[in-house]
Amino acid sequence: MATIHDVAEKAGVSVTTVSRVLNNRGYISDATRRKVFGVMEELNYHPNEIARSLLRKQSNIIGLIIPNVSHPFFGELANDVEFFAHRNGFKVLLCNSRLEPAKEREYIEMMKRNRVDGIIMGSHTLEVGDYESLPYPIVTIDRRIGESIPYISSDNYRGGELATRLLIDKGCRKIAHICGSLELDLLANLRTDAFESMATRSGIHHLTIQTDMDVFNQEQYEDMIRRLFREHPDIDGVFATSDIIAAFAVKIGRTLGKRIPEELRIVGYDDVKAASWLQPSLTTIRQPIREMSELAVELIRKQMEEAPYERENILPVELIERDTT
């Protein structure tokens, strides 16, 4: 069985150079990289991942815990995190918590056993101390946990302002906001704060309805939106806290004979790819998902290298107007 020394000798480079190629560390010319990989293939050399991780005291694996992998926002986030992680020499261990504390705890224990280098959290259901006591870097997405853990979020308050202001400027006089359960301590709740503040200041009749604690359970959306339109048939504007909820509002509004956007205007949040595919296409607040993903990987790397980093990372949002307004 070939060893790293065999690869180095045949490629005419040092063992250190082969190690750098394997770990994607340090500067290596493309020619040298191709030569080393060519020799590895010729000799059928496969590095021992466990031995390498023990030697380096790192695994080059980042854990990613998200609440619902089928939700378009988190699906796109996972895709982009994997892209930037791989570009930085990491692999991603993806975990789907479904907002279940027991499941999340099991995944964290599994990550300890697999010696991950850090965790990107898109879900948190445990106590703050459970996260702060973990022996590796953590980054959270759209949630603030403790005083020492860095987090990334879009500018939720500004997004709520942009969405509400658009509906008011378009002439809406009774607007509804559909959001997740406000009992959950999420930075996304700032969207609701902005909606209620701006509608109140503008003297616009408004109301807020919430999902249950399982905010990603799509089965509840249709019932709550039908009830909203039944109890408030004069609603002419809706700001939904996600594009998925907004899509349900479009579907049900049209089923009830409401002309969009003439009689009912709808704004979503996220700007997932499907928002532009819908008919009518969805006006929404764009979260910079790709930039958030890249920054999450960068913050893990900076913590590993004990480099300076910002704890609070609020990224700008953008109003994308399409056919629903």
UniProtKB/TrEMBL annotation:
The keyword Cytoplasm does not apply. Signal peptide: none annotated. PROSITE patterns: HTH_CROC1 (PS50943), HTH_LACI_1 (PS00356), HTH_LACI_2 (PS50932). Pfam families: LacI (PF00356), Peripla_BP_3 (PF13377). Residues 2-56 form the HTH lacI-type domain. Coiled coil: none annotated. The keyword Transcription applies. Residues 3-43 form the HTH cro/C1-type domain. SMART domains: HTH_LACI. Keywords: DNA-binding, Repressor, Transcription, Transcription regulation. One of its GO terms (molecular function) is DNA binding. InterPro entries: Cro/C1-type_HTH (IPR001387), HTH_LacI (IPR000843), LacI/GalR-like_sensor (IPR046335), Lambda_DNA-bd_dom_sf (IPR010982), Peripla_BP_I (IPR028082). This is LacI family DNA-binding transcriptional regulator. It comes from Paenibacillus gyeongsangnamensis.
